[in-house]
Every structure is written in structure tokens, then in C-alpha cells.
UniProtKB/TrEMBL annotation:
Enzyme class: transferase
Protein name: Thiamine diphosphokinase
Highest taxon above the source species: Bacteria
NCBIfam families for the chain: thi_PPkinase (TIGR01378)
Ranges for domain Thiamin pyrophosphokinase thiamin-binding: 124-194
Taxonomic placement: Bacteria, Bacillati, Mycoplasmatota, Mollicutes, Anaeroplasmatales
A GO BP entry: thiamine diphosphate biosynthetic process
Stored Pfam families: TPK_B1_binding, TPK_catalytic
Length: 204
């Protein structure tokens, strides 16, 4: 099963991202989804970022609405994840380009807590990997950061390749902005990686 969470700052919605998915609008993201012609299966949040008229539109165009108390210990996004945490895949659309950087950081922390969650917008994909993988060829650049104190990795098919490299958490920028060339593979021998895939700005 797959769920898609739509946040307030998503600038484009690709309907392919929504196929065969439970669609959840998170706070103002619900209104954002409706403005794109998408009716959420569930809209959830304290809705402190919408006015009364906008909330009426959310209630009218959502199959279900869950209104949260604004005084809470979790963000609206994490509350939405908890609704579907048993799903195989949870994709957060947005949450990268907003004005509040602390919310972006909190969303990154959610990837560590919930390994079935990834974050995506029109230019980037952010996910946690603990097994070897083939990078997504829809993206030109890939950045690898060790989540644990050390990850041992091998990289081939990219501009900068590595063999059994001990990537440490303090190697802050070493894994930044590698370029996918041909038949790329990232082998993770141990540890976990935060993986950020990015598109070429000229092709957006």
C-alpha cells in the first residue's frame, strides 16, 4: 500500500505520483491539493494556516477531515504519517522549499524515524537507504551522507567513484553532488545513507 502526503509548498503535482495511493492533505497542503483539482481522501491538521473560507473548501472537497488540537507534541506531518505508518511506502510531496527551515529539518528527522517515508518535490527526492541500490535515472545528481558514525560504501557509474570507502558522518560534504554517468550503482556494505537525488535546473 502507498500513501501520498501533500504539503503546503508543493509547486507542481504530477498525477503519476498520486496513482494507486491514499491521498492525504496536510494542513494547508489540503487546500493546495484542492487548488490543483485533487480531492484528498483525508485532510488532517490544526488548520492554523488557512482562513475560515479556505477550511470550508477543504471540508467540502475531502472525503474525511481530522482537525487536530494546535497544542500538540508532533507536527501535522508526523500526525499524518501515523495514520498510515503501516503502509509500504509513504511519499511526502513538498516540505523542502518552505520558508520555515526548522520544518524542513523536522521532516528530515522523520525519514530516520520512519524508514518507509521519502520526501519529494519537482526537483529533488530525499530518502534513507540501508541496502545497495541503483540511483534513479530521472535525476542528474546524487548526494550521499552517512547517518551513522560510519558507512562503508562503493560507488560505480558516476563521475566520482569509490571502492569500500569508509564514509563518516563528519565527512560532511565529501558525498555532495556526485553526477550520474552510466549504469550507476551504490553498494552499501554497512551503515545507512541519507540520499538526495536532484535534477539539473536547466531541465526543469
Amino acid at each position: 500500500m502507498r500513501a501520498v502526503l501533500i504539503l503546503f509548498d508543493i509547486l507542481k503535482l504530477n498525477k503519476e505520483d498520486l496513482c494507486d495511493s491514499l491521498i492525504i492533505g496536510v494542513d494547508r497542503g489540503a487546500y493546495n491539493a484542492i487548488s490543483f483539482g485533487i480531492k484528498p481522501d483525508i485532510s488532517i491538521g490544526d488548520f492554523d494556516s488557512v482562513n475560515d473560507e479556505e477550511f470550508k473548501e477543504i471540508a467540502k472537497n475531502s472525503k474525511s477531515v481530522i482537525k487536530l488540537n494546535p497544542i500538540k507534541d508532533k507536527t501535522d506531518t508526523e500526525e499524518a504519517i501515523n495514520l498510515v505508518k503501516g503502509y509500504d511506502e509513504i511519499v511526502i510531496l513538498g516540505g523542502i522549499q518552505g520558508k520555515r527551515i526548522e520544518h524542513f529539518y523536522a521532516n528530515l528527522m522523520l525519514l530516520l524515524k520512519y524508514p518507509n517515508v521519502k520526501i519529494k518535490d519537482d526537483r529533488s527526492l530525499i530518502e534513507v537507504k540501508d541496502k545497495s541500490f541503483i540511483p534513479n535515472k530521472d535525476y542528474k545528481f546524487i548526494s550521499l551522507f552517512s547517518i551513522d558514525e560510519e558507512a562503508i560504501i562503493s560507488i560505480s557509474g558516476m563521475k566520482y567513484n569509490l571502492e569500500n570507502y569508509h564514509l563518516k558522518k563528519i565527512d560532511a560534504t565529501l558525498g555532495c553532488s556526485n553526477e550520474i554517468i552510466n549504469n550507476p550503482i551504490v553498494n552499501i556494505h554497512s551503515g545507512r545513507l541519507l540520499v538526495i537525488s536532484s535534477k539539473d535546473d536547466e531541465k526543469l
